[in-house]
């Protein structure tokens, strides 16, 4: 199985250039560990692109959508650490969506990915969903250089929390396609052909943002020490 849960939080954002080094250190050594200690969080991964904006794509795989509206997660968002509160001030253009997984093919995550964020044209939504599942994504993971393909759809509106108030109001995420692979050229060819902006718009995608990212860090819940709540 490629993904670890039935839902995911998808984030795409930029960081002030003078804070990039500290952001990456904080995210790897505090934030990912903190998030993975929350019940229902299964794996977090950070991806980046030095040539595109937004620079960062972060995905938190969770057991179900309810994880993202439950008190353990909301309590953490409303009580950020001192370091987290500091880093929130450097975030720009945050796009954040609580999404259900509607299609998944392949196994594992490759080190490169094509991330496509868009909305469906209401007049073509049913046909677009069918085309993605039956044709566009169905066998992508079997192509040389690729390992997995997924489709997400926003299903829950994030609450306003203290973290968001510090960095400013987030923009939403609607539909997302994520294709991962071990070969950067294969991912690039996909972005230029089968899942190009032109091809996706032809099938009813609007407000499309396409970007290729490389994974920087991945951490799963099984890899961290979770404090004993009885202590």
Structural Rg: 17 Å
Strand content: 35-45%
Structural class: alpha+beta
Please give the count of helices: 7
Major sheet: arrangement of strands: 1-3-2-8-5-7-6-4
Largest sheet composition: 8 strands, antiparallel, barrel
Number of domains: 1
Shape: globular
Q: How far apart are the termini?
A: 35 Å
CATH class categorisation: Alpha Beta
Count of distinct strands = 8
The H/E string reads EHEEHHEEHEHEHHE
Could you estimate the helical fraction of the residues in percent?
Answer: 25-40%
Topology-level CATH name? Alpha-Beta Plaits
CATH architecture: 2-Layer Sandwich
- Overall pLDDT, averaged? 96
List low-confidence stretches: none
Give a short synopsis of this structure.
With 231 residues, the protein is an alpha+beta fold.
Structure description:
This protein is α+β, with helices and mostly antiparallel strands. The termini are far apart. The chain has seven helices and eight strands, in the order βαββααββαβαβααβ. The chain has a single domain (7-223), classed as Alpha-Beta Plaits, CATH 3.30.70. It has an eight-stranded antiparallel beta barrel with strand order 1-3-2-8-5-7-6-4. The mean pLDDT is 96. Helices cover 28% and strands 36% of the residues. The radius of gyration is 17 Å and the shape is globular.
């Amino acid at each position: 199985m490629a993904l670890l849960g039935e839902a995911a939080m998808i984030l795409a954002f930029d960081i002030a250039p003078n804070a990039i080094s500290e952001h990456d250190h904080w995210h790897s050594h505090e934030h990912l560990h903190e998030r993975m200690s929350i019940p229902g969080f299964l794996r977090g991964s950070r991806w980046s692109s030095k040539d595109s904006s937004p620079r960062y794509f972060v995905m938190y795989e969770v057991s179900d959508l309810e994880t993202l509206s439950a008190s353990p997660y909301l309590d953490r968002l409303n009580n950020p650490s001192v370091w987290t509160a500091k880093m929130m001030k450097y975030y720009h253009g945050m796009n954040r969506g609580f999404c259900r997984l509607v299609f998944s093919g392949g196994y594992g995550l490759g080190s490169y990915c094509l991330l496509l964020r868009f909305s469906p044209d209401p007049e073509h939504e049913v046909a677009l969903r069918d085309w993605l599942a039956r044709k566009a994504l169905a066998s992508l993971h079997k192509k040389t250089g690729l390992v997995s393909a997924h489709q997400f759809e926003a299903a829950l509106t994030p609450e306003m929390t203290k973290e968001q108030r510090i960095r400013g109001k987030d923009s939403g995420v609607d539909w997302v396609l994520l294709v991962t692979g071990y070969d950067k050229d294969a991912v690039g060819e996909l972005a230029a052909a089968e899942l190009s902006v032109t091809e996706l718009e032809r099938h009813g995608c609007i407000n499309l943002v396409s970007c290729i990212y490389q994974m920087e860090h991945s951490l799963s819940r099984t890899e961290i020490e979770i404090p004993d709540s009885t202590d």
